[in-house]
Design brief:
alpha/beta, six-stranded mixed β-sheet, 7 helices
Length: 319
């Protein structure tokens, strides 16, 4: 229910509740002569921040380049380029915002990736949000293909419907992603080959520590038949699954996640996502194994401040 009314809730919190809280704090903490001026200044700053994040910050986009080195990577894949994008929430790119999605797709294709991976949350609430965006999304290309997984918003988690109807919505989402030409991995994997060498792209369904999130990810099913010596790139929407499921249950060297959006804003490098996630953006390492968490492309709420939309280019290196 909160997800359905997320944007009105955001504006009420940002334009009414937050200013009221700061007005009360100023009245309590500021000198008696100046508390009204302090309260007015805080209110104006909050309103400016909300307007900036909604009209300007949400339009910012960065392409981040980085490398991951592993001794397990086959020689033929040294220099292999993977482009990751996550949390597109295409239902937010309607009307005058559609150009932002087109720009993101153009930026992805400009990287000339060997493989493109999408790590979940393509929609906000309903699969039909994809229909107006199909022609744009179908333009995403990678030499070896586009691989995707489902995020928590790609299941009908936030819709009031019976289980049969919800299952139908999931089938719609799956059908739409396949029509895009993407290879949707639902506890599955694919083998990519270069001559006699190969690597594995594995994709788990969503799994998170929060019980209200879908817990359909199955590591063992995803990795069934994978050679223990293979180099594996694991796609999992929720980064909490890395330590809870992926590290203890398989040997995947590199895991790519999203989900956090980086809280969609930071203050002096701090994100509200830190309350929930140990890693809300960037790298985490356990020995030679690594997790990278993308802060995502969009959001259910069109607001970002000090947290631009992100496209990630990861070049694999032989250590």
């Amino acid at each position: 229910m909160i997800a359905r009314y997320a944007i009105p809730f955001f504006f009420v919190m940002g334009l009414v509740i937050a200013p009221l809280v700061f007005i009360l704090l100023c009245r309590w903490l500021a000198p008696r002569k100046h508390w009204k001026k302090a309260a007015l200044a805080c209110t104006l700053l909050i309103w400016i921040a909300v307007a900036y994040g909604y009209f300007v910050g949400f339009e910012k986009l960065e392409v981040t380049h980085m490398e991951y080195a592993s001794k397990d990577l086959p020689e033929a894949f040294d220099g292999y380029r993977i482009v990751q994008f996550s949390d597109a929430h295409v239902g937010t790119y309607t009307g005058s915002r559609q150009w932002l999605l087109k720009r993101a797709v153009d930026s992805i294709n400009a990287q000339h990736a060997d493989a493109v991976v999408f790590t979940g949350d393509l929609e906000n609430l309903h699969p039909d949000e994809l229909l107006p965006q199909m022609s744009i999304l179908s333009q995403v290309k990678g030499k070896d293909g586009v691989f995707s997984i489902l995020g928590n918003h790609d299941y009908p988690t936030y819709l009031d419907a019976d289980e049969k109807t919800k299952a139908g919505f999931v089938r719609q989402t799956v059908s739409y992603e396949k029509k895009l030409g993407w290879q949707l991995l639902m506890n599955e994997h694919r083998v990519l080959r270069r001559d006699s060498d190969s690597i594995v792209i594995a994709g788990m369904e969503n799994w998170g520590v929060l019980k209200r999130m879908p817990r359909k990810g199955d590591v063992k099913k995803t990795m069934a038949g994978v050679n223990p010596s293979s180099f594996v790139v694991m796609l999992q929407h929720d980064p909490t699954a890395w330590r809870e499921k992926i590290l203890p249950e398989c040997h995947a060297q590199l895991t790519l996640s999203g989900h956090t959006h980086g809280g969609q804003f930071t203050i002096f490098g701090w994100s509200p996502s830190a309350f929930t996630y140990d890693v809300w953006g960037g790298w985490d390492h356990e020995g030679d194994r690594a997790l990278f968490v993308s802060t995502g492309l969009g959001g259910l709420i069109p607001f970002r401040m000090n947290m631009p939309g992100e496209i990630v280019v990861i070049t694999l290196r032989k250590k």
